[in-house]
Amino acid sequence: MFIFAWLNNQLLKMQWLSDLVQGFVERVLGLSVQDQLGGSIHFFVYDVVKIFILLSVLIFTISYVQSFFPPERTKKILGGYRGITGNILGALLGTVTPFCSCSSIPLFIGFTSAGLPLGITFSFLISSPLVDLASILLLASIFNWKIAFAYVVAGLILAVIGGTLIGRARLEGYVEPFVYSNTMVNTDQETVTLKERLGFAGEQVLNIVQRVWLYILIGVGIGAVIHNWIPENIISMVLGQDKWYSALIATIVGVPMYADIFGTLPIAEALVYKGVGIGTALAFMMAVTALSLPSLIMLKTAVKFRLLAIFFVVVTIGIIILGYTFNAFGHLLV
Amino acid sequence: MIIKILGTGCANCNKLVQNTKKAVAALGIAAAVEKVQDMKAIAGYGVMRLPALVIDEEVKVVGKILKVDEIKELLK
User: Is the minimum CB–CB distance between B49 and chain A shorter than 8 Å?
Assistant: First the structure.
């Protein structure tokens, strides 16, 4: 147990880095980490370096796993299932199928025109940005394993239930007709060598870091401000655990925001540090990553307004419910 | 030769357009490089990953930002 705790602290939580940055702040800058300025510099430098190290290592490993599940293959696997099993599988595959947000529409079209039920496709679309293999380890690093696990389970439940509801509502008529009218070319399953998989993993690291670095800097910056400059009583006035509306507000604020899960984590971290309920912080993260204006606008090209509105409402309400559930049972997770 | 890049205008797609233009210039061949951003047109090619590279109406590569050298190989 001691070995595990040590590995957890040093490798995952990077205690050594925290100590190193503390030394830098105290000796080189001559500030105390207990002070506002020193504390926020420590939070910013430590979080930025930690997230970039974890991100690079994780994305490399995960992209390697993902190279076995290109969307074409996922489509084939999902094609054999119906009902709740299909939704669960869709949600699970959403966590391992790599796709950049610009591919979400062709992916939707590909799944739908291949005859996959709308509900299963939506289970996939909800879980894909929400639950990422990398996010599990980052959550474990920043919070703890229980919270990471709870987040993943919550995200999957949201994807399964959301997809099932959309499937039950029989909304096939609200997909733009062109989606059904095109034929998909079946790109032949090319054999991929080990070297190509490693190359793919390396490229993914570069691509993703290039895509998200700004979000991370902004996210950690906001986190540092919350962490050291905004008084706790102001935050607890709006998002405090005793306020019935806290998870609701966190969701409403998060929905129009658009960021990667990696940029959102430091904000959630700082909020929890300031006494905000874990459910409220998770609801905020889910709202930011699962729903965003750009992705809704993209989806609008392939589906009619009614389906888009139902998707939006189902996911938003789901996040709010999960937020309250986690706040109620949050004491079990710390 | 007509080369089309299918993409929704994201950073990855634009990078592929640039690399393709460089490859065409380096080879000195007569080829038109076009961006296809309309989703209906993209759907018509049946690709599930973007960006995609289409040469003379044939889908060559999907979901990959090819390097200049790799594109040169395809164009030869």
Answer: yes
Instruction: List pLDDT tens digits, range A129-165.
Output: 788 777 788 888 888 888 888 888 888 999 999 999 9
Is B48's CB within 8 Å of A101's CB?
no
How does pLDDT run across A65-81, given as a tens digit for each residue?
878 888 888 888 888 88
Residue A275 lies inside a defined structural domain of this protein: yes
Q: Name chain B contacts of A70, Cβ cutoff 8 Å.
A: 49, 63
Containing structural domain, residue A281: 2-181+193-332
B65 touches A: beta carbon within 8 Å = yes
Q: Summarize the confidence of residues A294-310 as an average pLDDT.
A: 85
Domain count, chain A: 1
Residue A316: what pLDDT? 92
Amino acid at A3: I
pTM of the prediction?
A: 0.79
Q: Which domains does chain B have, with CATH numbers?
A: 2-61 (3.40.30.10)
